[in-house]
């Protein structure tokens, strides 16, 4: 395995792919932080699942595999899904969680039907489309990786430039609007960027699990800090680590899809964060509680001792 | 003086065909503390949000200093309800107060040393200077409310809207807020407060706006806050309306009992002290430099001149 790992690093094609996964991880982590703080984590998952029919329809219409085309298809179906979720919550008594569930499963169902149809159509070009389910980073072409890297980089730059605006919109949209910020526009932009992050990650991580790359790094980063800036950077790092680890392991071990491995890498970091993070982590919490208990007991026993000595003195009088 | 800080004309707001506010018209004079009163669901918060352009209106118009809200936005400060945000957001008190400066900064520009200094001064004004670096979830409800007030101060406005700033705060914070309101009034600013506690209305406000889906009455507290008007506003639901309108002394009693309460926490006491000192320092004012826009009046300018 070691030699194959080294072989991987030496292969310029693989260097590209690793670079792409790295940027993808950072981009998803950064966007995911805002998605998480705006309590829209599940939205990312719904958008990812909704992308599948978009990809399939794009392929059926054009008959070629092109990441740009697929991106267009999945962005359109993602937008339709968002619209559907809004419509359901607005015009019925169904709450957002249920609306998300309905849209997610319907779109995914349509996607699977379409994909099966494509696979049975005998189209010679169709091989590899099933990789979109769980992702196969190693199967990416250089142009795909290029696209993925550039788009991720763009996402990171936009987040950097509009950091102040995204922060206020995530924390207090009402106040932001009263202040004259274009809240609607910024929220749409954040949602659009979430769609883009999801879509760009699909080929590497797959529709089923790509949302984890948005959620898990952000949640893990939140454990370590109380500052949004630090959290966003940290989430980017965790995302990058997960992306690279997932790509490496799935590339070296035969036929492991990238998505699940990436998610497992991210989850292991999440576990470390949840247990060992200072202040918010489990260990810190248990330790703090134990220390408080000890202090209280000490002060109580001290008080008792003082009381006793007082009564003894009183007795001597 | 022909220009009013706020003129509401025939304002109508509806949520899905059901009117919440119908044809509300009133105007408020400048340099006053105004209480907006009414039962639950009377449309108090809705009115505030409609005036601020946060929710769409069905009809009517709102003029702020004779202009549309869009044009006079920088003269307006806003304190939303405390529960409207998630206090577990990764940020600290100083950072939240600095958000009050974002409107002056405009797109893309980041808050710098100047914004930091202004935010610190505003935190000090509400007696929260010691908590600048504190994660906001670690603050008590009253402290969170004061952080929101400090953020509104940082907006350096001439007209303030506050949505229930007294909801769920202890006596100390309530006093700190009221002394801040008086300070703002001394500087010639106008403050509109959505309020619930009828027993303090006579003591706190110069003017009242009584709402119940529509406007019941608006005017000076003396003339408008009457038993007859309150009955129209609240229906028969409040038994002791007579008490409230007649006994302004009653709230003084309540104040005294609050003061002499022996069991006050350490932080509350410290906060109380800080609140008082900010009141005595009122004459100094916070020195906020002029912005590029000539419209901005520095906080405390009135008290200095």
From TrEMBL, chain A:
Membrane topology type: Multi-pass membrane protein
Q: Keyword set for this entry?
A: Cell membrane, Membrane, Transmembrane, Transmembrane helix, Transport
Which InterPro entries does the UniProt record give?
ABC_BtuC-like, ABC_TroCD
The UniProt transmembrane annotation reads: 16-37, 67-86, 98-116, 145-163, 189-216, 228-249, 261-283
Cell compartment(s), UniProt: Cell membrane
Name the chain's protein. Manganese ABC transporter
Superkingdom field: Bacteria
Q: Which family does it belong to?
A: Belongs to the ABC-3 integral membrane protein family.
UniProt xrefs under Gene3D superfamilies: ABC transporter involved in vitamin B12 uptake, BtuC
Automatic annotation (TrEMBL), chain B:
UniProt biased composition (Basic residues) = 263-273
> What are the start and end residues of every segment in region (Disordered)?
246-305
* CDD domains noted in UniProt: ABC_Metallic_Cations (cd03235)
Show the coiled coil region(s). Answer: none
Leader peptide range in chain numbering: none
Quote one Gene Ontology molecular function term. ATP binding
Is Lipoprotein one of the keywords UniProt gives this record? Answer: no
Pfam families listed in its UniProt record: ABC_tran
- Keywords associated with the record: ATP-binding, Nucleotide-binding, Transport
- What SUPFAM superfamilies would the database entry show? P-loop containing nucleoside triphosphate hydrolases
Residue stretches making up the ABC transporter domain: 6-238
**Similarity comment text for this entry:** Belongs to the ABC transporter superfamily.
Could you tell me what this protein is called? Manganese transport system ATP-binding protein MntB
């Amino acid at each position: 395995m070691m030699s194959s790992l080294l072989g991987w690093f030496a292969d310029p094609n693989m260097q590209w792919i690793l670079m792409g996964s790295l940027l993808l991880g950072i981009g998803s982590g950064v966007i995911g932080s805002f998605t998480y703080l705006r309590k829209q984590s599940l939205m990312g998952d719904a958008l990812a699942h909704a992308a599948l029919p978009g990809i399939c329809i794009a392929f059926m219409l054009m008959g070629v595999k092109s990441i740009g085309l697929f991106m267009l298809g999945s962005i359109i179906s993602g937008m339709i899904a968002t619209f559907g979720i809004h419509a359901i919550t607005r015009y019925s008594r169904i709450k957002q969680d249920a609306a998300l569930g309905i849209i997610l499963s319907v779109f995914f169902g349509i996607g699977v039907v379409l994909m099966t149809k494509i696979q049975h159509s005998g189209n010679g070009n169709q091989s590899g489309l099933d990789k979109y389910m769980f992702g196969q980073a190693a199967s990416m072409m250089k142009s795909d990786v290029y696209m993925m890297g550039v788009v991720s980089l763009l996402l990171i730059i936009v987040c950097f430039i509009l950091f102040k605006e995204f922060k206020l919109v995530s924390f207090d949209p009402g106040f932001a609007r009263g202040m004259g910020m274009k809240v609607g526009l910024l929220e749409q932009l954040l949602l659009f960027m979430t769609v883009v992050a999801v879509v760009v990650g699909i080929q590497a991580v797959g529709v089923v699990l790509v949302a984890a790359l948005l959620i898990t790094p952000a949640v893990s980063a939140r454990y370590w800090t109380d500052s949004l800036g630090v959290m966003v950077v940290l989430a980017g790092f965790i995302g990058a680590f997960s992306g690279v680890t997932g790509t490496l392991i799935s590339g070296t071990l035969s036929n492991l899809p990238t998505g699940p491995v990436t998610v497992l890498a991210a989850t292991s970091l999440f576990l470390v964060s949840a247990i060992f993070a200072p202040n918010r982590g489990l260990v810190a919490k248990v330790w703090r509680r134990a220390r408080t208990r000890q202090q209280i007991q000490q002060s109580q026993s001290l008080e008792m001792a003082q009381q006793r000595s007082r009564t003894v003195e009183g007795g001597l009088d | 003086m022909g220009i009013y800080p706020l003129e509401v004309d025939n304002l109508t707001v509806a949520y899905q065909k059901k009117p919440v506010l119908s044809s509300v018209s009133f105007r408020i004079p400048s340099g006053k503390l105004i209480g907006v009163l009414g039962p639950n669901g009377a449309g108090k918060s809705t009115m505030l949000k409609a005036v601020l352009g946060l929710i769409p209106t069905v009809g009517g118009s709102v003029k702020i200093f004779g202009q549309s809200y869009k044009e006079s936005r920088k003269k307006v400060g806003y304190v939303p309800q405390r529960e409207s945000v998630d206090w577990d957001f990764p940020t600290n008190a100083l950072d939240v107060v600095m958000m009050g400066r974002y409107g002056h900064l405009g797109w893309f520009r980041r808050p710098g040393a100047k914004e930091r200094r202004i935010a610190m001064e505003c935190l000090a004004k509400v007696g929260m200077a010691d908590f600048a670096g504190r994660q906001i979830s670690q603050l008590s409800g009253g402290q969170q409310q004061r952080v929101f007030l400090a953020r509104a101060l940082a907006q350096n406005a001439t007209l303030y809207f506050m949505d229930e700033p007294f909801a769920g705060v202890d006596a100390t914070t309530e006093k700190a807020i009221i002394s801040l309101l008086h300070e703002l009034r001394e500087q010639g600013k106008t403050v509109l407060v959505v309020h619930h506690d009828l027993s303090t209305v006579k003591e706190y406000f110069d003017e009242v706006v009584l709402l119940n889906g529509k406007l019941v009455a608006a005017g000076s507290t003396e003339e408008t806050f009457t038993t007859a008007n309150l009955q129209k506003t609240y229906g028969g639901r409040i038994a002791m309306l007579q008490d409230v309108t007649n006994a302004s002394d009653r709230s003084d009693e309540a104040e005294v009992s609050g003061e002499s309460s022996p069991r006050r926490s350490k932080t509350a006491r410290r906060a109380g002290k800080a609140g008082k000192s900010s009141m005595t320092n009122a004459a100094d004012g916070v020195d906020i430099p002029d912005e590029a826009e000539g419209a901005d009046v520095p906080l405390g300018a009135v008290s200095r001149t």
